[in-house]
Amino acid sequence: MNEAIKTVVMPKWGLSMSSGKITDWLAGVGDEVADGDELADIDTDKIAGTLESADAGILRAIVAKAGEDVPVGATIALIAPAEVAEDEIEQAAEQAREEIESGAVEEVTGPMTGAVEVGGRTISYATLGTGEETVVLVHGYGGDKNSWLFVQEPLSATRTVHALDLPGHGESTKDVGDGSLETLATTVRGFLDALGIERAHLVGHSLGGAVVTAVAATEPARVASLTLVAPAGFGEQVNAEYLRGFAAATSRRELKPHLTQLFADPQQVTRQLADDLMKFKRLDGVDQVLNTLLGTLLDGDRPGIDAVPELTRVRAPLAVVWGRADRVLPPDNAEQLAARTAVSYIDGAGHMVHMEQPNAVVRAVESVAGTPEG
């Protein structure tokens, strides 16, 4: 195939994804597209996401139609400059179509998983990319490394990107000790030590935002940049009812109303998402973990974390992203951060900005981390 023809493939957004459904094409044949332009909306078994172009040129062919389930790694469209002959495009599109229909699609390697011992606990993580610079993604309360599925892949094009499970979460040891911010921050510092990471771009969501802020305050030489996504520890507002309800829920029926508060679009709360979280909540030790962390997150009905003193000691470039429809940590909380940096308020996003509008998070990270060559 002509090297000028660039393929757009079904991405692997997460460890368990084997296929995706194209729900809508946002660009049409003949459209000029740039690197980062939105091409298609894709639905997975977890949540819907938007696929961005990794190349610049003209969208010359759409191989997979809207409404079609396509295996991960399959070519779904072709991008090429105008000078590439139409017969070459047709031949490449025909071949891609045959591969989809026959199932002869080259397997795409997803994140590589691993585990390290930190402070007597096993910390699980997933890694994508092999770039010289390193990004570490830290999730929030009740989350795990897979919550970054739409962010980790695009960042890994030019960097090594680790998403870790904090203690008590995901596949890490179900023990958080005293559950303090310092315990969690010590875990992240220990993770960097265990992997031999001398310097990293840290990205944290919600509770993870407070955690990486604490790390950046105490290890300034090791933090190249800091990106906070709806972080805890700033402002006076917190949805204590959500946090307690999430911790207390014992069935999918009880859990789902609380999960809908995480997203601007309640339809994002799929049965699979709720089932996965209930499986996590039923694991031995998780109930104690969640209730211990409530003691860190809440002081009565008020926030229990104040990360502002730590932020005053942070010297790394800072980016902040907040969903305008956040009902867990309202965007008014960002006022304390606005004095330090411009805050990106994202329409169409609730608390889970990195799942609903992941491209906004990627852009925020790039704004302070730069865009190294691959």
Automatic annotation (TrEMBL):
Transmembrane segments: none
InterPro entries the record matches: AB_hydrolase_1 (IPR000073), AB_hydrolase_fold (IPR029058), AB_hydrolase_sf (IPR050266), Biotin_lipoyl (IPR000089), Single_hybrid_motif (IPR011053)
PROSITE patterns: BIOTINYL_LIPOYL (PS50968)
Keyword field: Pyruvate, Transferase
Residue ranges of every copy of the Lipoyl-binding domain listed in the record: 5-80
GO MF terms, alphabetically ordered: transferase activity
A Pfam family recorded for this sequence: Biotin_lipoyl
GO cellular component: a single term: membrane
PANTHER family hit by this protein: HYDROLASE, PUTATIVE (AFU_ORTHOLOGUE AFUA_2G14860)-RELATED (PTHR43798:SF33), MONOACYLGLYCEROL LIPASE (PTHR43798)
Name of the featured protein: Pyruvate dehydrogenase E2 component (Dihydrolipoamide acetyltransferase)
